[in-house]
Every structure is written in structure tokens, then in C-alpha cells.
Amino acid sequence: MKDLFDLTGKIALVTGASRGIGESIARLLASRGAHVIVSSRKIDACQAVADSIVADGHRASAFACHVGVMAQIEAIFEHIKSEFGQIDILVNNAAANPYYGHILDTDLAAFDKTVEVNIRGYFFMSTAAGKMMREQGGGVILNTASVNGLVAGDKQGIYSITKAAVISMTKAFAKECGPLNIRVNALLPGLTDTKFASALTTNDKVLKMALHAIPLGRVAHPDEMAGTVLYLVSDASSYTTGATVVVDGGMLA
Ligand SMILES: NC(=O)c1ccc[n+]([C@@H]2O[C@H](COP(=O)([O-])OP(=O)(O)OC[C@H]3O[C@@H](n4cnc5c(N)ncnc54)[C@H](OP(=O)(O)O)[C@@H]3O)[C@@H](O)[C@H]2O)c1
């Protein structure tokens, strides 16, 4: 019987893959046969992850890309075209959350940074990948959104707003790209133990309150996000597009 999770021969780009959830996704996709392009702003950190994937016997390479900078988005897709000639899987995972505080005190710099990375970055990474996928006859895009896109996080106003936009973006791309055989879905993680969430996980009072609201009673390990991504980028989910999958230990229940 065909292995529905087999990614042999696929080219997969994972942003924000130098650590955290993106690194877990990159490792799992590579273990299923994809060549993974490990990307973030810092090439050394990406190269270390790619080297370690290769040392495990799988395929990976590294390329730096700040997804908030349009020229760097163009550069990574030029690289992918010349090096691989195809892209089968895009995982938009790198995001910014520079401001933790009352929404009324959000300054323009924090607003711009969050929007540039989380909305403009995801959008133009998706159009660049989508154009290649249209030419080659199909592909898959996975957006890491957040439960905060459904229920605004306290003191995380502008971040939550951009994650709601990612959910809307997922549906808009899914609708228009379905006829092109391009599927587009979103992962909505709950609280996950990464550097990104450290403002919450290292504050005992905040963490205690957060855990009280999580039926599984613990923070997720980044590896616990990767299985859902493998499902959504593989043939196992071949009839799924425009979907948002919540992985939150039951919090929203
Ligand atoms: N952790 C949670 O509780 C949680 C919950 C819900 C959703 N999420 C979402 O999960 C995704 C991954 O977060 P994480 O928790 O794994 O965070 P993390 O461990 O801090 O990793 C963030 C990654 O993104 C990269 N990055 C940051 N800004 C970037 C930019 N402008 N361009 C390209 N790469 C950039 C970082 O590397 P460089 O510094 O080298 O660029 C790093 O690889 C994000 O979309 C986040 O919103 C996380």
C-alpha cells in the first residue's frame, strides 16, 4: 500500500527553521524524504540544522531569508529556481512578536514589524511559491498561524490581529489556488515551549494561569506541532484545503 506520508523527491522550504517549531517541522519532513531548505535570518543557525539533518542521513540545505524584506524573498526564490527548478512544499512559519503589552500603547515600529513579517512576508512568500507551483502543476502551502488568530491573546493585540489575517489568507489562497492543484492550510499552535513563547513560559504567574486553561495541563513540545504539518503537506490530506487545524492541548475546547 502507498505510504501517504512519503515525501521522497519533494522540495520543501521551511521558514523560521533554525529553531523551535520550524526546526521540528524541517527535521520531520526531511525524515520522510523531502529535500528541506532550512531558512531564517541567520545563515549559521540554519546551516547547523541542515548539517545535522544531513548527518542523520537525510537531505537538507540552508539559505538565509528575512521574510520582512522583499528583496530577500525574491533572492530565495531565484536560488530555488536555479538550484532545484521546483518547489513542492512551502511552510510559512517565521513570525515576529516584538511587543508584549497593552494594545493602546502599541507603537508604529512594533506595528510595522509585526505586519511586515507576519502578513506581508507570508503573503509574498506564498505568491512567489504559488507562481512556481502553478507552472509545475501543483504544490502545497502550510501557514503557521496561532490560536491567537481565533481568540486574541492578552497583551498580544497586533500579533493576534496578524495571525487572524494569516487564517484569512489561508482561505483566500485556498479558494483561488484550488483549481491550480495548490492546497493551502494552516496550523494553529497553542502554547509551545520555544524562545518565542519564553515571555509566557518563564513567568511563573502567567504560566500557571495559562496551564489552568489547558486540559492537557502542559506546554507543547515543538515536535508535537510537526506531525500535523506532515499530514497537511503530504498526500494523506489530499482533499484538505482552506483548513485550520488547532493543536492546543484542548485550550479552545
Ligand atoms: N511558541 C508558541 O507558543 C507559539 C504559539 C502559537 C503560534 N506560534 C507560531 O509558531 C511559529 C514559530 O514560532 P516558534 O515558537 O518556533 O519561535 P522560535 O523558536 O522563536 O523560532 C522563530 C524562528 O523564526 C525565525 N525568524 C524570526 N524572525 C524572522 C524573520 N523576520 N525572517 C525569517 N525568519 C525569522 C527565527 O530565526 P532567526 O532569528 O535566525 O531569524 C527562528 O528560526 C511562529 O509563526 C509563531 O507565531 C508559536
Give the secondary structure arrangement, pairings included.
Layout: E1 11-15, H1 20-31, E2 35-39, H2 43-55, E3 59-62, H3 70-83, E4 89-92, H4 108-136, E5 139-144, H5 157-177, E6 182-189, H6 198-201, H7 204-212, H8 223-233, E7 244-247
Parallel strand pairs: 1-2, 1-4, 2-3, 4-5, 5-6, 6-7
Helix pairs in contact: 1-8, 3-4, 4-5
The structure holds NADP nicotinamide-adenine-dinucleotide phosphate (NAP).
NADP nicotinamide-adenine-dinucleotide phosphate is lined by residues 15-22, 40-42, 45, 66-68, 93-96, 117, 144, 146, 189, 191-192, 194-197, 222.
Question: How do you describe this structure in short?
Answer:
Helix content is about 45%, strand content about 15%. It is an alpha/beta fold and about 250 residues long.
What can you tell me about this protein's structure?
A seven-stranded parallel beta sheet has the order 3-2-1-4-5-6-7, sandwiched between helices. Helix 1 (20-31) packs across helix 8 and helix 4 runs parallel beside helix 5 (157-177). The chain has a single domain (11-247), classed as Rossmann fold (3-Layer(aba) Sandwich). 45% of the residues lie in helices and 14% in strands. The protein is built from eight helices and seven strands, in the order E-H-E-H-E-H-E-H-E-H-E-H-H-H-E. It is α/β, with parallel strands linked by helices. The radius of gyration is 17 Å and the shape is globular. It starts with 10 loop residues before the first strand and ends in a 6-residue tail after the last strand. The mean pLDDT is 97. Helix 1 (20-31) links the parallel strand 1 and strand 2. The structure holds NADP nicotinamide-adenine-dinucleotide phosphate.
